[in-house]
């Protein structure tokens, strides 16, 4: 199984405010869809609840919650990261899509980080991506994009691969 974390982070590693994205970047949303479609996505309950139309189509949606008896249309519910990952096949790619607590739990397990690094600082943030040791990761690719009429700031799609000893 391959575990990939996908997130958009500002210059302080901020990822959200009041359970919402910090920046509206259409190309980031397109990349998210292109990478995750056809794969499994794992998210926390609050992230699932923030999705405007519920479960994301053409993906296996896994939701973590400690709420007993919770169910979410179009999603499978698990009490822990371990339980969710045990339900996945050896050939599956699992994308961890948030939020902060899940990113923190999954970082030690991740093989790949698919980050959108935003060249700006959000005015307000209450959720942050965890720090990661740069010596443990190799920058596999970087695709920089300038601000334009649809994107209020410049950003880069950066993929990091874990360095295995």
Characterization of this structure:
The protein has helices at residues 26-36, 45-50, 81-86, 100-106; strands spanning 2-9, 14-16, 40-44, 60-64, 75-78, 93-98, 112-118, 127-128, 137-145, 155-162. It has 165 residues and is α/β, with parallel strands linked by helices. It has a domain at 1-8 and 23-114: Dihydrofolate Reductase, subunit A (3-Layer(aba) Sandwich), CATH 3.40.430.10. The strands form 2 sheets. Strands 5-4-3-6-1-7-10-9 form an 8-stranded mixed β-sheet, with helices on both faces. It has a two-stranded antiparallel sheet with strand order 2-8. Helix 2 (45-50) links the parallel strand 3 and strand 4 (60-64). The model has no long low-confidence stretch (mean pLDDT 97).
Features:
165 residues, Dihydrofolate Reductase, subunit A, two-stranded antiparallel sheet
Q: How many strand units?
A: 10
In the CATH hierarchy, what is the architecture of one domain at level 2? 3-Layer(aba) Sandwich
Structural class: alpha/beta
* First-residue to last-residue Cα separation: 18 Å
CATH class (first level) name of one domain: Alpha Beta
**What ranges have pLDDT less than 50 throughout 5 or more consecutive residues?**
none
Strand line-up across the major sheet = 5-4-3-6-1-7-10-9
Question: What amount of the residues lies in strands?
Answer: 25-35%
Give the number of helices.
4
Helix content: 10-25%
In the CATH hierarchy, what is the superfamily of one domain? Dihydrofolate Reductase, subunit A
CATH topology (level 3) name of one domain: Dihydrofolate Reductase, subunit A
Spatial extent as radius of gyration: 15 Å
Q: Quick one: overall form? A: globular
Mean pLDDT: 97
